[in-house]
Each structure stands twice: as C-alpha cells, then as structure tokens.
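so my prof wants the structure for this chain in the tokens format not the other one, which i didnt know existed until like an hour ago. anyway here's the sequence
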Amino acid sequence: MADNPLLNLLKGRASAGPDLRVHLSQRDGASLHDKMRQAYWWITNNAVICPFYDIEFGQNASLKNSAGDQLVLHDDMSYSSFVLIPLLTLFTARRALMVGGPGRGKTSSAVLMGLISGMDKEAVRKGILRGHPQLTISDLLGAPLPSDMLKAEQMSEVKVSWRQWIGQRVKIVDEYNRIPTKTQSALLSLMGDGYAEMFDQYVYAGRSSWFLTANDDAGGGTFQVIEALKDRIDVVVRAVPFNSAFIHTLLQRIETDKSPEDLVPTEIVFTKDELDAIFAEILRVQVPRPVLDKLAFFLGQLDFCRMASPHFEAKSKDTLRLAGSSVSKVCNEQCPLDKRTHLCTQTENGVSARAFQTCIHYAKAMAFFRGNGQVGTDDLRQIVPWVLHEKLVPNVRSAFFEEQKNASLLQDRVAWIRNMFDMALDQFTRHEKTRAEVVTFREELDAGLEGVDLKTTEARIGKISAMLKQLMTKSELSGPIWEDVIHLKSIYSRYRNYAAWLKRAR
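here's what i got, hopefully its the right format
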C-alpha cells in the first residue's frame, strides 16, 4: 500500500518502528528552540499518544452536524495541552497540577519530564512523593539523625538527613490531595517559598519544576487541599482519554516489554545548562504594550463587585469574602449592570498578582516554543484558561448562565475562561481610548516630578479631576471604569501630596 502523505505529516519529527526503536528526523537547526520542539513531537507521537490538539492558532473554519455539534479546524499548527503545558512548565521552572481519572497517564507524563531534564529513570521513580493519609513531615522532608538527637545539647547540633528528592530539578507529588493538612503546610513552604526548616536548619529546593497529580480537580481526595497551597499552583493540565485507534501501540509495548520511559532518545535530553539557557531565553521574549494591556483589561475587572460596599475603594470581591458573603448573594436585580455582558457577574473571586505574573511567564514560553520573539494575543488566549483553571470560581447563580448556550460553560472551565477572555477583547476595543488616556497620565507622572513647578502640578490636577468627573457622571460604573477611577485617584493623590510639599517649601 502506498504511503499516505497525511499519515506521514502526522508522524511529526520523531517516530518509532515496530521494534519501538526511535527514529529522529533532522532538526531544522541546532538551537535549543528546535530541541524543545523535537521533544514535544517525540512525546506526542511516541509516548503519551495524544490526538487531542486543543491549543489552536490561526484562522478557523467550522463544521456542524444536524444536532449542532461543532468541529473547529485551524489553519496554523495546533498542539496538545496535555503534552505542551507540562513541557512549558519544565522550561519555566513552575508548578503544574495534572488532573484526571486513574490510569490516564498523569504520573507517566510527569516522569517523562524528569527524564528529559537529564535525570535517570531510577532517580525519577525513587523521587516521586506519593500522597497518602499517613504521610508525615519527616516522610516529606527528612528526619534528624537519632545519634545526634541523643548527643545534642542544642538544636543547631542536630543534623537533619534531608530527603534527596528535594534537590531534584523535577519534583513529582502524586495524589497531593491525599496528604494530611499539617504535611501540606510543610509542602507549601517548600513549594511556595523554596525552602523548608527543621531544627533550625534549612534546605532549599533550588530552581525546579513541580508536577502534582490528583484524580479530580473538584476538591476530592482524602483531605481538603489548603487554599494557600492551591494558590501556589501555576497551571492545570487535564488528562485526556485514550483514543482506541492507537490500540496497536499498546500491543507493541506489551510484545516488546518496553515503555516510553525506556526509549527516551538522548537527542531530547536536556542538560542543566540547557534548561537554564532556555529559562533565560523565555524571559527575554517581549510582551508588546497592547498585548499586555489586553491581559490587564481582562484580569483587572474580575475582582470588581459593585454591590460589595458603599465605599468606592472597597467594591471588590475580597470585601465580600472577608464578610463571609459571596457574589451569588448580592449579584441580583439591585445591581444595574447587564449580567450578559459584564464579566464581574460570572466569578466569585478575582485573581492575585501572582496569577498575572504566571499568565505572562507562560505566554512568553508559548511564544518562544512557537518560534516568536514576542507574545501575541493568541498566545494569551490559549494559555490563560489553563493558568486560571483552579483560580477562578464560577458564580453558578449568575443570570449569565441561565441562558442555555452559556449553561454548558459551567461543565468546562477552559471553555468558560476562554469565552470570558473573548468577551473582554470585544469590550477592550470600546474602552481602549479611555484606558489610553489614563495610561498617558501615568506615564507623565512616572517621568518624574523633578523640576515640575506648582503651576504645572495644579494644571495636571485639573485635567485629572476633569476626567474623573467625566468617568463618574458619564459612564456606567463597571469593572474597567472602576479600575480606571482607582488608578486616576492614586495619580491625583500623588500630585496633591507633591503640591502640598511645594507650598510648604516656599
């Protein structure tokens, strides 16, 4: 039978023969970027076997059946989130949570990340921290030497035998939601702050990538995961079901008694220096101001709640939370905002500055992986839902979800968050002029006040006051307007303080 060119295309840069020996095609070049992409294609085609290409770029066309089910086809390269996001996590030294049912390949995928980071298979396997209800802090971190405990007269004389996994470049925590709460706190310190303490001694995790697994993302497991620990997780990876069309690959693995972990080619194994070099190159990827502004516009309005407080600055969802209330209790007909268009009604919470940074870092990594020197809006659109997957809680009682076409979004957080991002992009076009004026005032202040006299200062105060009046009297108080007003008021206060200082200095 003649070769099918479509099948050859789907093989990518790496393939395996019937004997499972790996055959690698020539890379386009010797750059780390090419090696990174080669690793992706080998994992996709030979290890994880994932035909679900859900990170898509370019123009799209759609096909629909009579029942309304829609298939979207894109004209640019698409990627599997289950493979790509762990890779980006490896190269950005961040923390990923892999969720899905048992046997879906979560731990295997994490092990592959350890192998291509240069660790040997035995070290990776031994270093896996497996969560269970009896896991203690000593099991997690290590324990003091018994002989020192008997001889020591003060804690500094007690030598702690730290667990070896703490120093590994790739750290895997299997079923982290089965770890007792007290032990979770120790894990939080190590994962979030990069160090742990015992008997006045410290151990440092160093630059490393974390892969945590859980059988679901709805809080299931033996123990409730503490919120601070969940907040330290940067991105979520959802496991995908096995497609039965690839059952012949499973047969090969049985007959050869080999797993993908035994066949990782040396060509896609990275040294420590290479990982550090990729990390640095990702940081150098540029984020154009218009792209950054769109991200800020989207994330910034999520924390707004008009009904949270009569005090203007306190109109945020954190105010509700501290009072033991929720958006679902106050987001009703008394709020004049249209629930179909304003994003604030869809979430019970906003996001922290840490989430802003994570979105930017992963967007840089996505752009670098695609071979671009700067981040595009499409990079943000594809990565933001995975970053916010565990961080945003939907307000299920919002009038927005009462519409049938929107109700299904509650079952798929990636689709829901991406839909919110698209809504924000539509709104940004209408609000862009106002936001640009606020930015102009900010840039004028950031240029410095040295040499600015009292007359110039008061003139600037007048312009800012005029714009504040316009926003408060001519615009509907929405999330973006609230952010602009808060920003302008801070600028106004800075100028007022400076003017008062100039008057005293006369």
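also thought this was worth mentioning. Confidence is low (pLDDT under 50) at residues 1-16, 18-29.
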